[in-house]
Amino acid sequence: MDDPNIHHQLIVSAIVIAATTFVHGVFVAAAAAIFRASKGSARGFLRFFRDSTALVLLGLWLMFAHMLEMAMWAWTYLRFDLFDGWEPALYFSAASYTTLGFGDVLLPESWRLLSGATAANGLLLFGLSAAFLFNAAGQLHLSGAKGRH
């Protein structure tokens, strides 16, 4: 019952989760610094255009972070020879990380705990991205509302 591979899977999962969370933290911190620096005085359409562009760029920046993190999981799967090539590893990583989980491509049974770790990691980091974007949109809305009074 006590498969020693379970401990190996948990250690690998913890290392990849720590690495992807660190990477995501760097991306969010960089986005926050750029967002703070980009705030300035603007009115009317110029403000709308600036704020809309800022949110689009923040979203794209964070999606790039997620794509990098999915690639980190795919690299891990390849490192342990769990897939034959980059495409199936990245496909499985994306399906698991986004919690979509089609089920048409699976990890070997002795490594299946990694799929749950990948999903939990993606859920956490997408939540962090959503919270950041929600906060950024709120700051833009509030700063716009202050200018109208």
TrEMBL record:
SUPFAM superfamilies: Voltage-gated potassium channels. The chain crosses the membrane at residues 6-35, 55-77, 119-138. Coiled coil: none annotated. Gene3D superfamilies: 1.10.287.70. InterPro entries: K_chnl_dom. Keywords: Membrane, Transmembrane, Transmembrane helix. It comes from the Bacteria. This is Ion channel. It comes from Hyphococcus flavus.
